[in-house]
Write a structure and sequence with these properties.
The protein is mainly alpha-helical and 128 residues long. It has five helices and two strands.
């Protein structure tokens, strides 16, 4: 007997929600220290989630634009432009993303001086 896709979703929802509804109605979650801690930390969790979304969207936009530019440079008839673009593309293609992230975090500055004032750069900008 095979279940349809919609039946799988309903069954999964029931498996997750029935115990949750029971515990909530029995008041078991109201006394839980873990739930109280979760409520306390929820603003920080949501802020981190929002920053994660911003980083993801900016990285996709930046990656798309730079990828198009790099692809167009590789199509250049001039070897002086095509070969460095090919080299850069292969370096990024064959390097694990975690290594690239660590390199970016150490290469890009976290602050710089402008007219004698120190300007801090948020950590999420080099990570993007």
């Amino acid at each position: 007997m095979t279940l349809s896709r919609g039946t799988h979703k309903i069954l999964l929802l029931a498996i997750v929600m029935v115990p949750a509804i029971y515990l909530f109605s029995a008041g078991a979650w109201a006394d839980s220290h873990a739930v109280q801690e979760l409520i306390t930390w929820m603003p920080f969790i949501l802020k981190g989630f929002g920053i994660n979304l911003i980083i993801s969207v900016l990285a996709m936009i930046l990656g798309t634009v730079l990828g198009i530019i790099l692809g167009l440079l590789e199509l250049s008839p001039s070897a002086l432009i095509r070969k460095p673009a090919f080299f850069v593309m292969n370096v990024f293609r064959n390097t694990p993303w975690l290594v690239i992230l660590f390199i970016a975090m150490f290469i890009f500055p976290f602050e710089f001086t402008w007219n004698g004032k120190i300007i801090d750069i948020p950590n999420w900008i080099p990570a993007t």
